[in-house]
Specification:
Its main location: Golgi. It is found in: Golgi apparatus membrane. This is Carbohydrate sulfotransferase. The protein is of the alpha+beta class and 349 residues long. 46% of the residues lie in helices and 12% in strands. It is built from 16 helices and 9 strands. It has helices at residues 2-26, 30-39, 84-90, 94-97, 109-116, 141-151, 173-180, 194-205, 209-215, 223-230, 260-271, 276-294, 298-306, 309-318, 320-325, 341-344, and strands at 48-52, 57-61, 65-71, 78-83, 124-126, 131-134, 166-167, 186-191, 253-256. A hairpin with a 6-residue loop joins strand 3 and strand 4 (78-83). Helix 6 (141-151) packs antiparallel against helix 12 (276-294).
């Protein structure tokens, strides 16, 4: 019996020696052997990402439940359970994604559709500055489209119907995926406080009978009735501003209506489009904005529609994702405090 056990041990040792000779002589080193092994692994349901760093490699399988294997020359193995969001978040850095074999995390068809926003308001793409801009109706979209025409030397009488800007929907799925995970591309989203945005929408569209008949099949009787209708019928003017998988917002510049001009300078500086000519253009926009606000009574409008906290509670619930993702405060408007000045001048844009 002892002799039998000794023979088994000798055979196991012999197999181990053959294994290491094969690894170093045939494949060159640990990295090459591991890369060959992983690339020929047919059991993975999703695409793998491989990164070589200081004589070590990392293999990742993109799936709902994944394992991250870290191997180095000392053959120590650590296994960490990651979910899909954590995995993609860790691999947002460019050196994790764009490798020699150009493998990137795979997005589902639904995620691609969400990113392209194929139905309406697809993100603006400015290839010259490597910018993908996610805009929203009733969140300064006229301003941003006018600005993007200006910095590219384009001219159009109606920026909304202009065919001069490029949109993400014009790119194929592979291009969209690579652009979204390439850190040399700037991704930005511009949003607005939901109560201001939906009231602006109501004051602009709620009294437009032809618009209401087209979208709602009838004219709303009140602001509350309008809010109920928005939950029954889809429309880009009132849909939530969170349109993408949440993990993608973690690496985006997020601008808000209350700081539109500050954000403009920050964004254009980052992409290399800020200059004195643009500064002059923006100052002219500031003058237009002040003139337009002086012609309205924004404070009275807010008080008229939001003096009942129950209306605000309804909006807090409808647009819960917007408040959460973009860090808007769920605080009732206080019409007696000076802080109210911060919101009154943006409501009717």
């Amino acid at each position: 019996m002892k002799l039998y056990i000794k023979r088994i041990c000798r055979f196991a040792a012999f197999c181990a020696i053959i294994f290491w000779i094969l690894e170093f002589k045939v494949f060159g080193d640990v990295d090459n052997f591991a890369k060959f092994f992983i690339q020929n692994d047919k059991t993975s349901a999703r695409e793998r990402i491989i990164r070589n760093t200081n004589n070590a490699f990392r293999s990742v399988s993109v799936s709902n439940k994944t394992k991250e294997h870290l191997m180095s020359n000392n053959r120590n193995v650590n296994v960490v359970q990651l979910n899909r969001e954590q995995l993609l978040d860790q691999n947002m850095k460019r050196d994790h994604i764009f490798q020699q074999n150009r493998h990137v995390p795979r997005l589902t068809d639904k995620e691609i559709e969400q990113i392209k926003h194929v139905i309406e308001n697809s993100p603006v793409v400015i290839q010259k500055y490597k910018l993908i801009f996610f805009w929203n109706e009733k969140s300064g979209c006229t301003y941003w489209k006018s600005l993007f025409h200006f910095i590219q030397g384009l001219s159009s009488e109606n920026v909304h119907s202009s065919q001069l800007l490029s949109y993400l929907i014009q790119f194929n799925d592979k291009e969209v995926t690579e652009m979204m995970f390439d850190n040399s591309w700037t991704k930005a989203v511009f949003v607005r406080e939901p109560r201001e945005r939906i009231l602006s929408c109501y004051l602009d569209k709620g009294f437009d009978k032809s618009f209401m008949e087209y979208y709602f099949k009838r004219t709303p009787k009140s602001f509350l009735d309008f809010l109920k209708l928005t939950q029954q019928f889809k429309g880009s003017h009132w849909e939530p501003q969170v349109k993408l998988p949440r993990f993608l917002y973690r690496n985006m510049m997020i601008g808000k209506m209350s700081d539109i001009f500050t954000f403009t300078e920050q964004l254009l500086t980052k992409i290399g489009a800020w200059n004195e000519t643009v500064n002059v253009w923006m100052n002219l926009e500031k003058i237009k904005k002040r003139t337009r606000h002086h012609a309205t009574n924004a404070k009275d409008k807010l008080y008229q529609y939001y003096n009942d906290p129950k209306i605000q509670d309804i909006i807090f619930e409808i647009y819960a994702d917007d408040y959460d993702v973009f860090n808007f405060e769920k605080v009732y408007f206080d019409f007696d405090k000076k802080t109210f000045r911060n919101v009154k001048n943006t409501i009717l844009d």
